[in-house]
Amino acid sequence: MSPARRPRARRGDGDLLRAEILDAAGRLLAEKGDENAVSIRMIADAVGVTPPSIYLHFPDKDTLIEAVCEQRFAEFDEALEKAAASAPDPIAALRARGEAYVAFGLDHPEHYRVIFMTRHERTMELGDLTPDGATAGARAFGHLVEAVAGAVEAGASVTPDPLATSIALWASFHGLVSLLVSEPGFPWPPVPSLVEAVLNLQIEGLRPRT
Amino acid sequence: MSPARRPRARRGDGDLLRAEILDAAGRLLAEKGDENAVSIRMIADAVGVTPPSIYLHFPDKDTLIEAVCEQRFAEFDEALEKAAASAPDPIAALRARGEAYVAFGLDHPEHYRVIFMTRHERTMELGDLTPDGATAGARAFGHLVEAVAGAVEAGASVTPDPLATSIALWASFHGLVSLLVSEPGFPWPPVPSLVEAVLNLQIEGLRPRT
DNA sequence: GCGCTAGGTTATCGGCGTTCACTCAGCCGA
DNA sequence: TCGGCTGAGTGAACGCCGATAACCTAGCGC
Q: Within 7 Å: CB of A18 and strand C?
C-alpha cells in the first residue's frame, strides 16, 4: 500500500515535508470524513515517511488537524469575502455571505466539523476579532462584524449592535449547516429553501422598512 | 483503582448489568466531557466487571453511547414539554421551549454533543416525527411541530408552514448552543442576552402584529 | 576528508475496541 | 439427590492507535 518512500529533503528544505503532511492530512480528512478515521500512520504513509517524522513538524495530532483546518478556514474567509464583494448593496452582501457560508460547510463537511463543531480551548478577546486578526477565524468574524456594521449604517433598522447581530447571524447559519451535516438522514426540505428561510428571517428583518 | 468486583447477577437478572453500564457510561461521559475520553475499559471498571462483559449487552461502543444519549434525549423532551406546559399562551410556550432547550444544552454539553453534533447515519421519514414516535428524537421534534402549529393557529402571522418554521427555530437555538459549547473561549456576551436575542428574532416575529 | 547537524528511522510503550475460547454458578428434570 | 444445560461473566490475545526515546546517516561547511 505504501507508495515509494519519499527521498530525504535537502539541507534547508525541512519545511517541504511540513507542507506535504498538511496536504495529505487535508485530503485524507476530506476523504474519510471523520477526524478519528485519519491516523498519524496513514498520513505518514501517504507522504512516504515514517510516523515519528510527523512529530518533527507538529507537536501532536490535534495541532496537525488544527493546522489543516486553519488553512481551510482562511479559504472559507476568502470565499465569503469574494461572495460579498460582488453584491450590489450591504444587505445583499449579507445574503451572499450567508449563501457562501452554507455552501462552504456542505462542500467541506469534515473540515467544517473540525473548525466549528469540535471543542476548542483557545481563548480570544474582542480586540482580536478584526479583519486583520492573527487567525483566520478572527479575520472571518471581523469581516462579518464589518459587514453587519455596513448594513446598519446603510439603514438596516434593527438593533444597532453589530456584535450581537453578527452572533445571531452566525448562530443561525451555523445551526443550519451543523444540523444538515450531522443528521443527513433527517427528512430535510430542499437545502436552498432552508437557506432562503433563514436568510429571510434573519436578513430581511434588517432591511429598512419602507 | 478498581472498586470491589461486582457480584455475579442471579439467573434472570442479566439486564441489571445493562442498566448499571448505562448509568456508569452516562456519568463518565458527563465527567470526562469527551466521548473519546470514555473507554469501554473505564466503564467496565466503574461497574466492577471486565471489558468483554459490556459486549454481552451492547454490540459496540457506539451503540452504548447512543443508548446513553437516547435516555438523555428523552429527559430533554420531557424538560421542554414541562417548560411549555406552564406558559400562558402558545407563543409564550415557544419562548419557554427555547429557553429550556438552551438550558439543557448548557447543562449537559457532552450529551448534547453526542445527540446533536455527531454524525448519525440513521434515516427517518416525516411520518415518524410525531409526539408518539419511536425514538425520543422523533417525539421531541413532533412536539415542536405541534407547538409551532399551535402558535400559527393562535394567530402567529408568519409563513404558516409549521415544518419549515420548526426547522428554522431548531436551527437557531441549536446554532447558539452548539457554538457556546464548542467555543467556550470566544468572548461571548452574557448567555441570557444571547438567548433573548434569538428569541426575539425568531419568535417575536411570529407574534400577531397589532 | 572530517565532523556536525538537519532530517529522518527503528523499536517500543501503554492504551484502545473487539473477539475467541473458556469457566463457573445455579436452576431444572429425572 | 444429582447430572447437565445455560446464563453470566473471565482471561488472553489481536491489530490498531498516538506518542517517545534512542539511534542513524546524507550532505554541507571548513
A: no
